[in-house]
Amino acid sequence: MTKTWTLTDESKSKTPEHNDKWIKIILSTDRIDKDICRSAVVKMYAAAEKAPPKVGFVRSPVAGHIAAAALAMLYQLSKDPLDSGLTYCDEVKDGILKLASEKANSHIGPEAAMDVMSVLQELAPAAPPTPSASSDTQGRVQEVLSGVLSNISKIRSGGNEWGSYDCYLTFVRDVIGFSCPAHEHYAAWEDLAVFGGVRWVAEDFCLISDRPLTLVTNQNNVLDNDKGPAKEYADGFKLWYLEGVQVDEQIVMSPKSQTVDQILAEGNEEVRRLRITQYGDEFFREVGAQELDRRENAIEGTRETLLEITGGMKFLRTFCPSTGDTYILPVDEEITTCNAAQSWLWGVDDASMSIVGRT
C-alpha cells in the first residue's frame, strides 16, 4: 500500500529550523558525549542482533584510522590468521601496537601516538605467549598492516560529519510527521550523529573519534581558511582547505615556496587552480603565458584577461577593482575570447551569446 504525504504550510515553516539544527551538528566543535555514544553503540549492535563490542575513543580521524586498522588485524589474527604468515602471540601483538603507534607519530605527532597506543592496549584481544614461528615477524606485520590500512575505510562511518543523511531521514519524521517502528532502531544511529564523531564499526570493536577543536568555514558553510588549518584536532592533526577543496599546508601557509614545475605537475584540476591562485600573477610571468584576449566586463565590474600556458591550459584572470580581489579560473582549451570564457563558466553553450545583465 502506497501512502502519499503532502508538505503542508506548517511543515514548510519548520524546514529552515530543521536544516539549521543539522548544519550546526555537522559543523559542531563540541566534545563528543562518550556515555551517550557507548549506550548508542550497544543499542545499535542489539538492533542488528549482535553482541556488544568493545568501545574506544580517539581524538582525531587519522588516529582512529590507524587504530581501527590495527584492531581489525589483531582480532582477525586472534581468530584465524588466514594466509598472513603470522601466528597470534605476544610478539606479534606488541609488533602491531608498536608499528601503529609509530605511524600515528609520523603522521600527526607524539600525542596521537600515545592516544593510539592507549586505545589499542585497552581494546586489543589477549594474546598467548607462544613465540612467533616467523623469522621476520616485524617485516611481515608491517606488510599486512599496510594492506589493512588501505581498506579500513570500508568500515568507517562519518558520524556527525555525515549528518546531511540524517537531516533527510529525520525530516520525514520531525517535519512531515511520518513515523514507523524502524525509527526505534534508528534512534541509536541518530544519537551517534548528534553526540559522536567519525567512527569505525566492526564485529568486535567500535572506535569513535572526537570532533575538531576548531573548524573554519566561509559564508556558504564550506571549509575554507587561507590563514591556517580549516580543521584542527586535540591530538595535533590538521586539515587544510580552500573553497571546500582539501589542499596541503604549503599551499595555504607558504604558497610562494611552490615551484612552477610542482604546480604544472598537479594532477587535480581544482588543486592546480588553487595552487596558481595562491602563487599569484608571478606564475603566468614565469611560465611565459600568452595573452589571448582582454576586456572590461561592465556587467561584472571586472577586468578580464584570457591566458594560455604551457600544454594548452587556459585561464580567465578576473580582477575586481572595487575589492582588489583576483580570481584565476580554468576554462576549456577551445576558448579563444573572454566573452566565450564567461559564457562557458556560466554554462551557456553558445559562445556567441553574451551576458547582458545580472538580476
Major sheet, described briefly?
A: 4 strands, mixed
* Mean pLDDT across all amino acids: 91
> In which order are the strands of the major sheet placed?
1-4-3-2
Low-confidence stretches: none
Question: Would you list the SSEs in sequence order as H and E?
Answer: HHEHHHHEHHEEEEEEHHHHEEEEH
Q: Outline, from the CA principal axes?
A: globular
Structural class per helix/strand content? alpha+beta
Helix content: 40-55%
Describe it for me?
This protein is α+β, with helices and mostly antiparallel strands and 359 residues long. It has 13 helices and twelve strands. It has helices at residues 9-26, 34-47, 61-79, 90-107, 110-123, 137-149, 163-176, 182-195, 249-253, 260-265, 269-279, 282-286, 338-345, and strands spanning 54-58, 156-157, 199-201, 205-209, 214-215, 231-232, 238-242, 245-247, 290-297, 302-308, 314-319, 326-331. The two termini are 46 Å apart. Strand 10 (302-308) and strand 11 form a beta hairpin. A four-stranded mixed β-sheet has the order 1-4-3-2, sandwiched between helices. A four-stranded antiparallel β-sheet has the order 5-6-7-8. The protein has three domains: 30-158 and 183-209, no CATH class; 218-287, no CATH class; 289-359.
How are the elements arranged and paired?
Layout: H1 9-26, H2 34-47, E1 54-58, H3 61-79, H4 90-107, H5 110-123, H6 137-149, E2 156-157, H7 163-176, H8 182-195, E3 199-201, E4 205-209, E5 214-215, E6 231-232, E7 238-242, E8 245-247, H9 249-253, H10 260-265, H11 269-279, H12 282-286, E9 290-297, E10 302-308, E11 314-319, E12 326-331, H13 338-345
Parallel strand pairs: 1-4
Antiparallel strand pairs: 2-3, 3-4, 5-6, 6-7, 7-8, 9-10, 10-11, 11-12
Helix pairs in contact: 1-7, 2-8, 3-4, 3-5, 3-6, 4-5, 4-6
